[in-house]
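Q: What structure does this chain adopt?
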Amino acid sequence: MALVLLLVLVITEIGFAVFELTKSTTKKDWTKRQLGVIGAEILIYLLMLVLPGIDFSFRFKGFVILLAIRIIFAFISFLINRKNEKIKKKVFIVLGKLFTCFFIIGSLAPAFIFKDYNGRPLMGSYEVAESESILIDHSRTESFETDGSYREVPVHFYYPENAEVIKEHSLPLVIFSHGAFGYYQSNTSTYMELASHGYVVVSLDHPYHSFFTKDSDGKTITVNPEFIQDAMRIQNGGSEETEEEIYEITSKWIELRIADMNFVIDTLEDTVSTNNMNETWFVNDDSKNSISNIIKLIDIQKIGLMGHSLGGATAVTVGRREDVSAVIDLDGTMLGEEIGVKDGNPIINEEPYITPLLSVDHEAHHQERIEAEKTGYNYVNNIILKNATEGYSTYFKGSEHMNFTDLPLFSPTLAGLLGVGDIDAGKCIDQVNSLVVDFYDSFLKDSGEFEVQESY
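A:
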């Protein structure tokens, strides 16, 4: 429907321009008719709100702002020129309408890039609520800043509604880490599904690794450009660095993320134990009660970690903690388990992995693991799963890296640029979410034996 709206608006503008070009138009008449055309376009948009795909969401925010600016300036122009009998030059009519069409197309671009996505149907019995806070780590200064400020980690909670009627300290905690230049909402359907089954889920942002987030001053923090360049270069195989140099780069990434996740776990455990939100917590006044109720729900004896891509690598290494009961890696190379490089080959942490671990790969990643096994290459995922006391692995046929997030459903265009397969995106993420719930039910709720197919 966004395309229909765009075509109607462009045709309206072109038709108006053609009409004006066929006659000599005074500036007085031009501004009056221009005001009427913009008013008609506003009416068209409002009438089309009844149709699917047209709404007041962020997808149309730029367009609404453009309409508001245009109607204001058109009205001001009308007042200024209401007695102006000079002829409007045709070249200005043409240029004006060309620029108008350009701005209309640009303002509607988000409606084409992003879909009208409202999440996946929930299979659990609980309705889901959300809240958020920022945790301030007073033991670390922000390495991406020069002002001596502390590292801040935004945390976003997904949990069963009516938390006050649920037994205290009865719900397992799952903490999620997003991928490189992802952000906390990358797997919202997964968080929602878990929360609907009686879990408290915390999705954390890694500032400067996250596409965007906000700090305690309300400032928007965008992804660090150098981090993007390094990540894209290394991921696409265009890096000229040696294995040792690549390790130096990636180990810094994972070190930062591991510190963030450890900090979140430690803070939540301390807050649950003491029932006190200290100066570490930055919470808006309207969120304090909900955060307090969430804290009372958490059973810190039942902690699960998970993440996508670089976030999965983070979860795996932090998952060696004794207080973590289950870990899921969604298509991540377990970089935190690489402890060095020797003669151009990675040195892998050979200690047994005793935390139950589920690894989910896209099809090409699975084939890479098989090839590494055949050639004897020390691929970290193979070694960690081999040394795992309870290690499970599966892959999805026809999938690519971004199929394990909500992005293909939210923005097929962006997902296509980052890697999406021909598998049905909705069915894929639903199956992933079902596996996630089954895995955590088994190891965090002691609910039956976990089983997984070789592939889906």
